[in-house]
Hints:
- The protein is of the alpha/beta class.
- Among the domains are: about 80-235, no CATH class; about 250-315, no CATH class; about 385-580 and about 595-630, Spore Coat Polysaccharide Biosynthesis Protein SpsA, Chain A.
- About 30% of the residues lie in helices and about 10% in strands.
- It contains 20 helices and 18 strands.
- The chain has an eight-stranded mixed β-sheet with strand order 10-9-8-11-16-12-17-18, with helices on both faces. It has a five-stranded parallel β-sheet with strand order 1-2-4-6-7. Strands 14-13-15 form a three-stranded antiparallel β-sheet.
- Strand 1 (about 115-120), helix 5 and strand 2 (about 155) form a beta-alpha-beta unit.
- The protein is globular and about 105 Å long.
- Keywords: Disulfide bond, Endoplasmic reticulum, Glycoprotein, Glycosyltransferase, Manganese, Membrane, Metal-binding, Signal-anchor, Transferase, Transmembrane, Transmembrane helix.
- This is Exostosin-1.
- It is a single-pass type II membrane protein.
- InterPro entries: Exostosin, Exostosin_GT47, GT64_dom, Nucleotide-diphossugar_trans.
- It comes from Nyctereutes procyonoides.
Amino acid sequence: MQAKKRYFILLSAGSCLALLFYFGGLQFRASRSHSRREEPRGRNGLHRPSPDRFWPRFPDALRPFVPWDQLENEDSGVHASPRQKRDANSSLYKGKKCRMESCFDFTLCKKNGFKVYVYPQQKGEKIAESYQNILAAIEGSRFYTSDPSQACLFVLSLDTLDRDQLSPQYVHNLRSKVQSLHLWNNGRNHLIFNLYSGTWPDYTEDVGFDIGQAMLAKASISTENFRPNFDVSIPLFSKDHPRTGGERGFLKFNTIPPLRKYMLVFKGKRYLTGIGSDTRNALYHVHNGEDVIPSTIRSIHQDKILALRQQTQFLWEAYFSSVEKIVLTTLEIIQDRIFKHISRNSLIWNKHPGGLFVLPQYSSYLGDFPYYYANLGLKPPSKFTAVIHAVTPLVSQSQPVLKLLVAAAKSQYCAQIIVLWNCDKPLPAKHRWPATAVPVIVIEGESKVMSSRFLPYDNIITDAVLSLDEDTVLSTTEVDFAFTVWQSFPERIVGYPARSHFWDNSKERWGYTSKWTNDYSMVLTGAAIYHKYYHYLYTHYLPASLKNMVDQLANCEDILMNFLVSAVTKLPPIKVTQKKQYKETMMGQTSRASRWADPDHFAQRQSCMNTFASWFGYMPLIHSQMRLDPVLFKDQVSILRKKYRDIERL
């Protein structure tokens, strides 16, 4: 009897204890959730998941309770109706389950590709400079379309960056303005940029209007509200952040071993409460006033530190150093989500030159790009296609273009020759072209403009392209040597005629020079080898405004190609064996003598330099003093011991 009584008392006590823990736990979690919403947060606050974040979440979970008297109207402190306050509170949670598959219309992108439409700016609407920079970056990109019927993605012209009611940049009545847009469609296929949301003391993440099914490109977004593979987390940049270009990283040179006084550095305020306070406060306690105390940091090998430091410089320069790069990176991420079958992998995003310059529409195979041969264990291409740009009628069998064609065809590395006929006269008959051991394909340019020489023609079957002007004078030996050099530097331009740029202090502008000096920053495409991917980049990456300028002037296409390649590689071109007679020979030809003798030609190239630098946001050209010559070049040894012996006789 006594035993039964003891068992009954024990069972009763256990049941009471279980109920106490159950109801007490619910109350604790509710109070904790409530306290987190009321904690202040700095604008540059970091967000980390709370411990209860890792527990399962059920679809029927109760929404956090906020008293109505703590809610405010977006425009003033005027008392709102209970229904309005409920709607304002629930705007945070509408569309919280949105994913690309449920809240994005892919059919808009299948027809015309990834095109972005920016709403026209309304008269009288104030727009902060930072948001103007975002819109300018979109409108200047290859994604932009002014036709909403062609668009896959829509961006508001209403400034949504700063949604702090205490900020002078705050746009009032945004809810009604957004709902009045006839293309809004509950936010479907819309992208909203936001840096600041909420106000003191709560700093909630409510942007002040119902975003519906729109995607958020937002800074300091919490893990609780971030919708994976739908929203995009962007860095919190200042109003002084450059629109284009941007400064390079602070790592100017590599110190080996990479030792520094400070092992761990954190920029930001220390928060005792609020979102991100756990992490920030923990970082404060890893220092004892004299030195850092987790042994983990000191256990990292110096080689690893150097590699990580170099990687941070790459990531900064590739994606974060300007507003334009932040915006374009955001758009590229969304494009990858839409077209998953050609989306870029982690190697492309995390290795030079980065995701912004590796366009997946060109190819889904990394071996088709000039940057990954070593990673894939591949050898560079063994053949090239010679592309000769012809602008003069064929009237004599002794014309330089025919001699050039024969010299290129005799190269052991030549797979085929393409003649781009950009002449106003009709195509010559087939029998006018010399017989060669490799195929000769003549393409008549449709538009007959300068940029057409860099179109990604399907006829080019090799990765390597030997670009030639019709009046270029090159021997077969020179062609062979230049190609063997390019095989060691497949991502760069390798060739003969070199030019340079300089800063003119008196005119405060960039200058162009063709003087023979000890350095250079460009190799002209009249006699150069490069990867054919640059034809695709030139055509699809560069804006129409720059290409139109080239076509109108019939000039500067070679300068623009050098700007592009140097911007991608962050490296100078490579000049091979000096050939001073190139300039004199070229000037003596009748086909283009008038062009080079024209005083406007040189002035145009000066103007092009500054226009190009303005679009890139900086000067991408890099000076070099390196010239590659054949082994034993000009050495006092028997000519029979030299592989490229004919070069010395030129």
